[in-house]
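Researcher: Predict the fold of Peptidase M24 family protein.
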Amino acid sequence: MEQERMARVLEQMKERNMPQLLISDPATIFYLTGVSTEAGERLLTLVLKENGKHVAVINKLFPLTKEQLGMPVVNVDDIDEGFGMGTLVEQLDTSLPIAVDKNWAAHFLLDLMKRVNQPVSHFDISSKITDDIRAIKSSEEIQKMRNASKDNDKAIGELAALVPEKLTEEEMGSRLLDIYKSMGNSGFSFDPIVAYGANGADPHHMNDDSVVKDGDSIILDIGGVKDGYCSDMTRTFFYKSVSDKSRDVYETVLEANLRGIAAVKPGATFAEIDAACRDYITEKGYGEYFTHRTGHFIGIQCHETGDVSSSNHTQVKPGMIFSIEPGIYLPGEVGVRIEDLVVATEDGCEILNNYPKDLTILG
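Model: Structure tokens for Peptidase M24 family protein follow.
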């Protein structure tokens, strides 16, 4: 068990009057115990209690022990009534409020509510606590994120070097996995995006059999997983040549990226950082083509709770790690996105990606 992290959870439980938390999210379980597991449709839940008498209710398919999790283990079986929900309820004080993970399967939650037979107000979301704690990275976590991003800098350089081979987008993605494996990454942090030309005008384009053509923009949005922590970065290149219009789009996105990064400092709101990017793109006449938020939080998961958007008025705190990734997407023509990860510091931020951002023509 990660004692310091668990202590922070217990402190927040007391402050927020959440006497018992049900933790089922694999990433949060990993964060609190160091144990990596995926339960699928089965029951695997940490029951955290304000009095410290925690217990794990786990399907016996998963041979996890008290020594691994740092708390007693109660096993349930696939054939147990309610898939073991009755056993879980036995571990709770049903007279006290109960908080559950935001992503807990609906059939588990509804069954629990029926068994407890309390009003909806009796229940809350445990992720309010764990997400806030996970958002502030420790020095050890920040170093792991640095290491992951350093690998990602190398990976995108190796991938860009393959463009003259005129591989399809799908082939580029396959080669990227080999690159990550060679660096000791366990795999992708998300399905990579390789988008040639007009395909780049779809921000979440799915790789296909397209082949790069002269004058195409090339979006490479990639990330790996190193020591349990994610990287994520986007660079946009051009093949053989670049039109004046595409150059203007690129330079606009690059300046927006730099302005967003410059706006990161403790006390600034995420809405203000978003505006630093968005207002400039709008000023340059491309506002309607910047179709997504400016960034997302990242750590154990590629997309963690928290974002850089006009609706998020939360203030930046040191230790938060998130992306700055403005983009412009002209349908049928060109897409450009430039993304860096930053970690907020006491007086600004540290950029975790060092791969160059100057406009680059490949081939």
